[in-house]
Amino acid sequence: MEFHKVKSIMLPYETGVSLKFSVEPEDKLTQAVERMLLYNAKQIAVIKNSSVVGMIRLGDALKKLGLESG
What we know:
Blueprint: E1 22-23, H1 29-38, E2 43-48, E3 51-57, H2 58-64
Parallel strand pairs: 1-2
Antiparallel strand pairs: 2-3
């Protein structure tokens, strides 16, 4: 089974995306989806070495995982 990583769909960070919870670029995409669902978030910040390096969106993650609803 192929594991997709957060960095595969990372976008530039947009102001307004909460920094209260985050993921790292090397985290599994499924972990990011679980965290977004847990916090009822549509996007999540990506942090590396204590710095914001980007963000991902729930919809993009679901699409990459083949879980996007029609």
